[in-house]
Specification:
Layout lengths: L2 H22 L2 H4 L4 H31 L1 H4 L5 H10 L7 H28 L4 H18 L1 H11 L5 E2 L7 H28 L1 H6 L23 H8 L5 H4 L2 E2 H18 L13 H10 L10 H6 L14
Parallel strand pairs: 1-2
Length: 318
């Protein structure tokens, strides 16, 4: 990478710092800071805003404006969770009888209890505030990753390039596709490793899996992780910048979009858009712990045999 290209990276990140920090904070707070700390502060402010604004808007939309459109009705929520937990044992006659009894019970009381149970499917304010608290405590560590990424790019340690015109649109799109494939593979195995390697699960990932039912999952839970857990799951975004030419701004956008995507994955709304790994799939992951480890798509789970599609859960679909 030539020196004038490296200068373009520094100019671009300095511009972002001025636009974000200059708009939100007094100059005396951020201008005296070294460039690295300015960038870290800018990433912290931006990711915090993305998390808080997207979480608030999405919760307001699904829990308060249109709860009957998106939340499960009747005892279907319990029945679906029960069947997923016991799928491997349902071959016994007794289990079939239990499921039949539950189904009859559901059909009997659905109309009487649908309003109450829809309300029960909304996470409590206490649960959501806890998720926000866990996330905001970890946010300084989360935003260290893009800050270090920008530092490495500015110093010419990666294969990033500053402008799409440097390679052309066709080549740019091809590289983005490869970038996403690498990230998808990396996130899948990182996430799966956090489950399969018992100490990693016990000391890191278990923090996130205390939210294991639809009435505890919410858009706020997406980033409620142990800080090291969050860094590990986002780290695959650093792999392609060393392997393939990567557009700098696209890399930053995709890295920050993980926060928005995490919000989507934990809203419990089953969006049927193949091959997207929607919240319907990820809710199953929080129930079984052994399926649907993927990030944006279901492909890696399909290839490696861990895919479990959502079953009909009584919710309206998008």
């Amino acid at each position: 990478m030539e020196n004038h290209d490296l200068g373009r990276f520094v100019e671009e990140t300095s511009l972002y710092n001025r636009l974000i920090l200059g708009s939100l904070l007094p100059g005396g707070v951020w201008e005296p800071l070294p460039h690295f700390l300015q960038t870290w502060l800018r990433n912290y402010v931006m990711e915090s805003l993305i998390y808080l604004v997207s979480g608030f808007l999405w919760c307001f939309y699904i829990y308060y404006l249109y709860p009957n459109a998106f939340l499960p009705k009747g005892t279907c929520l319990f029945l679906r969770t029960f069947m997923l937990k016991k799928k491997e044992k349902r071959e016994s006659f007794l289990m079939y009888i239990r499921v039949l009894v539950l189904l009859i019970l559901y059909l009997t009381i659905e109309d009487m209890m649908s309003t109450t149970l829809v309300a029960d499917a909304i996470p409590s304010r206490k649960a959501m505030l806890l998720q926000i608290s866990v996330t905001m405590k970890a946010m300084p560590w989360y935003t260290l990753l893009p800050t270090v990424s920008e530092y490495m790019i500015e110093n010419g340690w990666t294969r990033c390039y500053p402008g799409i015109s440097d390679v052309g649109w066709v080549t740019y799109l091809a590289y983005v596709a490869i970038y996403l494939a690498i990230v998808e593979f990396g996130v899948y195995w990182m996430h799966r490793g956090l489950h399969d390697i018992k100490p990693l699960y016990k000391y890191l990932h278990a923090t996130h899996h205390i939210y294991n039912k639809e009435n505890t999952l919410s858009p706020w839970a997406g980033m409620a992780l142990n800080p090291l857990d969050g860094l590990l799951q986002a780290s695959p975004h650093l792999i392609p910048i060393f392997l393939i030419p990567t557009h700098f701004r696209t890399h930053l956008v995709l890295l920050f979009m993980e926060g928005v995507w995490a919000t989507n994955l934990h809203d419990c709304i089953n969006v049927k858009l193949w091959p997207v790994m929607g919240a319907g799939y990820h809710t199953i992951h929080h129930i079984t712990y052994r399926h649907n480890y993927g990030n944006y798509t279901i492909w890696m789970d399909w290839v490696f045999g861990t895919l479990r599609p959502p079953v009909d859960d009584g919710k309206k679909e998008i």
